[in-house]
Amino acid sequence: MLDSILESLRVVNLPTKTDFRSITHREVALFSGAAGWGEFAPFLEYGPRESIPWLVSAIESACVPAPIAKHEWIRVNATLPAVNGQEKVAEILSWFPGCDTIKIKVGANLQEDLVRISHAKSARPSARIRLDVNGNWSVDQAVTALRATYENFGEIEYVEQPCATLDELRELKKKIGFPFLIAGDEVIRKSADPFALDLRGAVDVVMLKVAPLGGIRRAREIADHHGLPSVVSSALDSAVGISTGLRLAASFDSQTFSAGLATGQLLAGDVAEFPLVDGRIQVAQVMPTLEALAKYEATPDRYTFWRERVMQTWDAGARDQVAREEWIA
Question: Are 5 and 31 in contact (CB under 8 A)?
Fold first, then answer.
């Protein structure tokens, strides 16, 4: 299996349209298998152990047929990075035609956050609003920010990872005097054992990012285990990674929330086309085009870097009892 991955490995460097959490280019490694293509793209700060589920997900995507799709189209949200200025906000939202839900990155500066939300509401008045904090608030900061948001804009759909830990999230739930939902992201996908977490009183919605959770099968098992509504989201993936997320989202019976799978709209180039049509993306398994692979191909030194990363992650998985017995085997 490792030899097959390395033989078909293609590395591409995809430019973004705007700065997204300090990322202006997204480098990903792709490889093919009997079932299609897989994407291995843990962020550069991730070590081999943390990258194991990303490799497992990529292997599953390339080698295991996807579950039966129960939906042809998946509703998706717009994603608004932490940008400032009404014109910039309107420009970015124009990249997401028809999306009636906006996920807004917040958490660094409350006044700037409130202005950003106001600009988003002005650009798309009827849109539902989600906030994504990436765990950056303390409990007291979260109370202040959520109250200010509620007083200015009314109810939001949910706030994603407002604080870093489950204990903080439980404390926050007790301190807020109005109804709101908390979506858990990092607290789940960065856990050593997502199945061992007690989300009661802390999390109302489970975020499912297929690559860091170890693939479609394992993400489904995590969702089923916790029995909470879920939102399938992406990690600034290429079209290959997005297609895997879409197949996960399509495996659920219902779509309670719009999926966060339109982050490809933030890329200035991609390995395949994945059109966003009236706020929805069609479920499909994409094939990278030869033209795109050539246009965005990384330099030889980056191939060396990613080959070594794949091998180091594979070795880390081989040393890990859970990975060896349940994932990679």
Answer: yes
